Amino acid sequence: MNTQRLRHLALVTVAILVPNQPYSGMCNEIRASVQDEPAWVTFAPEGEELTLLTPAWPTIRNYPLRAPDNSDREKVLAHHEYGAYGSGLVFIIESYKAERPQRLWRDLPKLADNGAVFERDISFDGITAKQYRSTYESRYATYTRHFVRFATKEHVYLLTLATLEDANPFVDRFLSSLRLRRPEDRSTTDTQRSDYILGQAFSANEVMRRAIVVWKAEPTLH
User: Fold this and answer.
1) Using an 8 Å Cβ cutoff, are 172 and 90 in contact?
2) Is the pTM of this model over 0.85?
């Protein structure tokens, strides 16, 4: 039976402190703030087959495993989600481990069915990834979303990149850094991330500028 869940990034909601202004003005502010962004980091999750550069340390979410609805579907051995916000870019990396990733690929929802259109093939280390694009409107803003999906020896990866801008150069920077893990790559661990502490949370009457949500994952059926 389908159950409703809320897919979330960085504890579900991503927000930016900005003045009360139309969303069209937010893009300019985000672009101007890029100069103040910290250097991108190499993210090599333990147990995964990919390595890439990200604009922020991702939050990790581990999903409980369930038996397939029927015996014809490939069993998921592990399901992890990595996501964060930085450089005007929201990114989510979903990882599904399976004995036969190509068969699992067939079972996962087809992005084209959700209104996304094919953009291009991305090739790296003998892997061909499919990139799709869509425009998404919510009560917060209109986003441009890029979806990238590919299968490796042991995993299927689904990447979602969302920006307020129609063309954000950091999308290409993110995707061009994709590669398969190498023996010399050091795993990113929780200990390494512990040095990055979130700033203090303030109440509305303690700030000069109010916070608004610029991107929020919507509930989906799973």
Assistant:
1) no
2) no
